[in-house]
Amino acid sequence: MRRVTLFVNGTSSNGKVVAVYGSMEDLLSVASSKLGIRASSVYNGNGGLIDDITLIRDDDVLYISDGDSFEDPQDDVGGPENCQTHTDWLTLNVGGRCFTTTRSTLVSKEPESMLAHMFREKDVWGNKQDSQGAFLIDRSPDYFEPILNYLRHGQLIINEGINPLGVLEEARFFGIEQLAEQLETLIKASQPPEDHSPLTRKEFIRFLLATTTKSELRCQGLNFTGADLSRLDLRYINFKMANLRGTNLTHANLSGANLERADLSMASLDGANLQGVKMLCTNAEGASLRGCNFEDPAGIKANLEGANLKGVDMEGSQMTGINLRVATLKNAKLKNCNLRGATLAGTDLENCDLSGCDLQEANLRGSNVKGAIFEEMLTPLHMSQSVR
């Protein structure tokens, strides 16, 4: 390992002793960090440009340039006014609060930051000063303090009560990219994971009580898996695309509710009021709907078009005028249901138990009744109903 002393081109003070290893790019990177400049060229004491690291000997004195040609260090006056020193002390007035630090702290750690450009050379940016000579910076002192400490020792430390988001904004403002990346990781890690747990009965009742009866209650896409919502007044609530799998909705009032594309598989809706309900393309496979009322005295018909009702138990339900067009009712139990005037066109009724049903004026055109049971019908099927 070789050891050399580095100076900024044209100066002979405030040198840095460093170890030489690797390539010229490695040496220039170390020089940039130590001297607070963007190092691009290396000269020996005689002004010779060094482009091969093997030419550097132990205890050499080297002069680092940021692109300028070699300047003889003997021309350096050394006075405090002319010296490009990086260890002199200065005071920053940040939002009315003063911070004292060295120039090297501001320029060495992040040489491409705004602070480094502001204070690398004296008076280049024309920084304004207060009556005490402190440089004025119109930013938040609370958020600036962690940034200054980071530039001092390279560690991100945020005191209690300081919002990391504020520090992140300051880091971005001053162009301190490495610190900004650390802050983004910290903020992301501190955020609680997304809660996808299903709503409970207690939470939903609190939700209902906080909403006026005239307000539209939107529960679209919410998760109610396995929740007990039995006997609740759920009229006209929007449950579109909600997850109601395995939910207990027995004797609930769901009249006028929107259950389009909701998942009601394995749910229990026995005795529920489903007058005028919208269940377009709903998945209710394996659900129990025994004794439900779909019949609305006002004439609003329940719409279950395209719903998946495979294996559903709807025994004894009132479904006058219901729309079950192209729905799947394979292996379903519809025993003793009132389906008078129902639309069952294109419906899959394979192996469906329709014994004891009232199908008067029901539309069965194009429906699949393979293996369906039509025993003890209240009214005989008419050929015009066109079953196949």
Question: Helix and strand layout, with pairings?
Answer:
Elements: E1 2-8, E2 16-20, H1 24-35, E3 41-43, E4 61-65, E5 89-94, E6 97-102, H2 103-108, H3 114-119, E7 135-137, H4 141-153, H5 164-173, H6 177-190, H7 201-209
Helix pairs in contact: 4-5, 5-6
Written description of the protein model:
It contains seven helices and seven strands, in the order ββαββββααβαααα. Mean pLDDT is about 85; it is low at about 75-85. α4 crosses α5 (about 165-175) and α5 packs antiparallel against α6. The chain has a four-stranded mixed β-sheet, covered by helices on one side. Helix content is about 20%, strand content about 10%. With about 400 residues, the protein is of the alpha/beta class.
